[in-house]
Amino acid sequence: MPIPHLARLLLLCAWLPAVATSATLERIRDNGQLVLGFVPGNLPFSDGDSQQASGYAIELCRHVADQVEQQLAMPNLQLRYQPLTTTDMLDAVADGKVDILCAPVVESLERRRRVSFSLPIFTAGLGVVVRQDAPATLRLPLEGETTQRGPTWRATINQGLNRHSFAVMKGTVSVDWARTRIRQLGLQSRLVEVDSNEEGVEQVVTRQVDAFFAERLALLNYQAQHPQGAQLWVPERLFEVESVAMPLARDDEDFRLLVDTALSRLNRSEEGEALYRSYFGDLSEQNRLMLRLNSRP
Questions:
Q1: Distance from C-alpha of 117 to C-alpha of 253, rounded to nearest angstrom
Q2: How many Å apart are CA 51 and CA 11, to the nearest integer?
């Protein structure tokens, strides 16, 4: 007996690819725009305003936009830039106010309760900036050196770091790291939370704080561009090393796959290596390997 028409249709549908159910992609299609969230003053990753933004993370998001245009067949896709602070950036992603956060954010278990993350976009190293005229008792411990050895090490650190003021960027793991270190060392030091790297560096320049902890490459970038950069010192020491990624809406695997596809294709291309060099300098073999490890074939 011939298969009824409805049964044949259902059988055919079972072999067809599933239709994308991405809430993010549906919103982009309906609005005709991709909303890029970013944190101003976070060079070299992002800076700008609602009219125009720039930086390494912004460039990555533009490649995501190219992938969206291709997948949704939207050649007239508009980009809208939404400035955010480190305090409200994850809420903006979770609430659907932005489609992707173009910022390097450490993926933690607590943050994964609110948002999802792309593949890693960078391996970040936590560094510090102080003034060139900072006392040796502060500079040496921050550089990982001490004038004494052996059992006096802890006392030397305490003497050098005690009663100083340190700044960190709000909403970053630097906050938890700094609080833990101050508590572990029993320091009577003041911890200041700032809204941007620019603000943190400026507080060091104007002597409002003694040191500012942030991504070391960002600190070097500000040191090079600041009018009083010659008065600043960024030691080579890294206090923490973490991979960072761009936050996305939770439970939206179709959009996440699109983002990871765009990042992977870029990182495995000469264009991706050239983009890296334009912001961070020569690409070492280790950095080239990290670009490939942070992508998927």
A1: 10
A2: 50
Question: Using omega within 30 degrees of 0 as the cis cutoff, is the peptide bond preceding 44 cis?
Answer: yes
DSSP H helices, 48-161, are 56-72, 89-94, 109-112, 136-143, 153-161
Using only C-alpha atoms, the chain has a radius of gyration, in whole angstroms, of 23
Render each residue's pLDDT in the chain as its tens digit; 297 residues. 454 554 444 443 443 344 446 899 999 999 999 999 999 988 899 999 999 999 999 999 999 999 999 999 999 999 999 999 988 999 999 999 999 999 999 898 999 999 999 999 988 888 999 999 998 878 887 887 544 444 443 444 444 566 788 999 887 777 888 888 777 666 677 889 998 889 999 999 999 999 999 988 889 888 988 999 999 999 988 888 888 999 999 999 999 999 999 999 999 999 999 999 999 888 889 889 989 999 999
Contact criterion met (CB below 8 Å) for 129 and 223: yes
Nearest CA among 67, 62, 22 for reference residue 38: 62
Amino acid (1-letter code) at residue 86 = T
One-letter amino acid of 252? D
**Residue range 198-237, pLDDT digits in tens:** 999 999 999 999 999 998 888 988 898 899 999 999 998 8
Show the beta-strand stretches assigned E in the chain: 33-38, 47-48, 53-54, 78-83, 100-101, 105-106, 116-117, 122-131, 165-169, 190-194, 211-215, 232-233, 240-245, 247-248
All structural domains of the chain? 19-121+246-293 (3.40.190.10), 124-242 (3.40.190.10)
Give the residue among 32, 20, 34, 169 at the shortest CA–CA distance from 97.
34
Half-sphere exposure of 153 (CA within 13 A, CB side): 6
Reading the block at residue 178, the tokens are: 């700094």
Beta bridge partners of 43: none
